[in-house]
Amino acid sequence: MLSAIFSLLIAQTCQPPDALILLDVSGTMKEQTGSPAQTKFTRAKNAISTVLDNKQGELAFGLSVFPKPAEFNASNQLIPGTGRCSIPSPGKAVGFALNNKTPIMNALNAIGTPSGSNDTPIYQALVKAGEAATFPNDDRKRAIIAITDGRQDCCKGGDYDSENDCIGTTTTLDPTEAAENRDDVITLVQQMKSQGLFVYVVGFGDKVDPLMLGGMAKAAGTERDPACDPNAVSAASTNLCYFNVDAGNTQDFVVKLNEIVVQIQAEVCDNLDNDCNGLVDDGVTRTCGGQQCGGPGTETCTDGQWGACDVQLDPEVCDGVDNDCDGLTDEVPCTTTCGAGTKKCVNGKLSATCTLSKTPKEICNGRDDNCDGQTDEGCDCDQGEVQPCTVHTCNGMKVCAFGKFGECEADTKPEVCDGVDNDCDGKVDGAGLCADGSQCVQGKCTSGIGAEEIGGTVEEVTYVYRGQGVSRACNGSGSPDALVLLLLALPFLRSRRRRR
What we know:
Blueprint: H1 2-13, E1 18-24, E2 32-33, E3 38-39, H2 40-55, E4 60-66, E5 94-97, H3 101-111, H4 122-129, E6 142-148, H5 175-194, E7 197-204, H6 210-220, E8 243-245, H7 250-265, E9 285-288, E10 297-302, E11 305-306, E12 331-336, E13 339-346, E14 349-350, E15 355-356, E16 386-391, E17 394-401, E18 404-405, E19 409-410, E20 439-441, E21 444-446, E22 451-455, E23 458-465, E24 468-473, H8 482-499
Parallel strand pairs: 1-4, 1-6, 6-7, 7-8
Antiparallel strand pairs: 2-3, 4-5, 9-10, 10-11, 12-13, 13-14, 13-15, 16-17, 17-18, 17-19, 20-21, 22-23, 23-24
Helix pairs in contact: 2-3, 2-7, 4-5, 5-6
């Protein structure tokens, strides 16, 4: 009886973490790897399926992919708002829930094979994933498992800062722009951490940017090993900060994902029962102090707050000495919602103001990212705002993302013979729309006389004589030639001869 009551209490107080699987479906994910050969996308699906089999009852998993998978109209043209660097809206394809494997796998299977028209908008995907609407549950630990086989790349348009990622019209990344993108992504992940959202980074194969992925893991505090090297430039390094996966080894993928799940489930200092053992913040400690202060010592977490260091530490004063043994001289670390910083000595006294180590960029996402008291300044529109528009003659809507309206997305339909541009390609009707070889003329299917093609000053016209179609060219005025007129007049001439 007591055991049942205890279990019920645990169920009521334990909030399993929300874990968003953020999967790259760019064109390179269709590459074949390993033996037997499988696409990287298939290996990722299989690994995710295996982990969900064992862990779906312990974490509330959700799913998002990037970019929004490419879609094509009847003319095999890319539909605006899909592929390239477009981002799905809302920020998750499958919402968070326990025992969520079936809807997640159904969503992944519906993608098929990633298209070569899909680029790698890592920054934009993280911004969308970090929106409040994506993670509505603030009362639990929140994590993103970001899986990519590439690097920030929007060479074909749609980049977050409107700056071309590549050199000219080539597909070669511009080194200067690539370095700026890397810094922006790392800063974004650091901001997300300060908002209680932790990004776990998986690099799939050797075509990634180790500096960016390692910097992301370090900024998020989710590195695989705290002693890792965030400056490693090769995916072959043995001391990477992110979770590196062999692109041809599905089992390696499973191992790394399981390691991440264990980290997400670990009890942390947040006043929540993360590991669902019925205890809050149990056994959560961290090292403090230094040898010169009689340490190192230990701080213990209670109700989401770190207690005092169990060694005697002197308060920091402006004297050129690291008095409190935190590794900083004449300054004290501090944090704001915009990131980490320090309180520094001003006129011989420690300031009460937290000075950010790096001022974040303002992102058009409905938040005051740079802590200047303004939200989304400099943005052309509000995140998620919609505006009516037209594609040729079709009505549609365009959505604001990252401060700019995207391309117009119309409700396209298959083209039929009705005098209307159904598929919004700027052309009304067309060939092959009618059954039995009949022609589409002025919105109707007809097997009688109908224009097939008009070009220059000559019309191609089909005349039907006793079931036989005769195609002849007309002159510029549209008059049929003499032979066609004679054929059409034959029935009349014969009837007159019979009357005589």
